[in-house]
C-alpha cells in the first residue's frame, strides 16, 4: 500500500515534459517534477520515492529523502514562524509545519527541538508535534529486559533523561547511572533495563548484567594485550578515566576486573593491573 510521508517503490506510467507520473495505486497518478527525475528514467521501471503534499496541496513524489519521515522522531531546527505555526528544516523544499496546538511552548527561529512527524488523516498533510507524550506510549508492550534499542534524548527531569525508544515509546535513563554528557536530540544505542510494575520503562546505556561483564572482561584482556600486559586503570581509578577508555561505569569495571582476578587471568596492584 502506498503511504504518504514514507518511502515507496512506484512504477513510472508516463514521461512528459514537466515530469513523470507514477502509479500511486489508491492515491491515483502522482507527479514527480522533472527536476527530480533521473536522466535514464523510462516508462515501466520502478523508483524509490518519498511522497508528500506540496504548497498547493497536490501529491508530489521526489527522489530526495527528508531527515525524518512519518512516525519518526528527530531533532530539527526552526527556520520560520508565522500565523500558522513554526516551520522546521527537514531536508525538503517545503518546510515541516508544527502548528501552535502541537507546541509545548512557542518555538523560536534558529533553535532546534525534538519532534514527532505525523500524518493528519483528515487532510493528508504531514506535520510535526512536540507533544511526544501524547503520541508515544510510556507503557511497555513487547520490550524485554536487556533488549537493545535505539534512543533519542528529548528531555530531562529530576530523576534523569527522557528518551524516545525505537520511535514508538518513551523511557527514562536515571541520571545517577549516566557517566557521559547527554544532549537534547542525541541519538545513541541503549538497552531496556527493567519494566516497572506499572509497565513503564527504565533504560540504561550499558548492560549491568553478566553478559555485559563478560564482554567487558574480553575488552579488558584485549586492552592489556595491546599495552604490553599492563594497565594503569585499577579499581581506584576515576569513573571519568574508566569511561573514557571503556564507556562503562566504574561499578561495572570493578566487577569485570574482579571476575578476571578470580579466574587468575590478571594481577591487581595498587597502581596497575597486569596480565598473567
Structure characterization notes:
The N and C termini lie far apart (61 Å). Strand 7 and strand 8 (96-99) form a beta hairpin. The chain is of the alpha+beta class. It has 4 helices and 18 strands. It folds into 4 domains: 7-62, Nucleic acid-binding proteins (OB fold (Dihydrolipoamide Acetyltransferase, E2P)); 73-133, OB fold (Dihydrolipoamide Acetyltransferase, E2P), CATH 2.40.50.140; 137-204, Nucleic acid-binding proteins (OB fold (Dihydrolipoamide Acetyltransferase, E2P), Beta Barrel); 210-275, Winged helix-like DNA-binding domain superfamily/Winged helix DNA-binding domain (Arc Repressor Mutant, subunit A). The longest helix has 17 residues, at 210-226. It has a 5-stranded antiparallel sheet with strand order 3-2-1-4-5, with no helix packed on it. Helix 2 (210-226) packs across helix 4. It has helices spanning 132-135, 210-226, 239-246, 250-262, and strands at residues 7-16, 19-23, 29-33, 46-53, 59-62, 73-82, 85-88, 96-99, 112-119, 126-129, 148-156, 160-165, 169-174, 187-195, 201-204, 230-231, 266-268, 273-275.
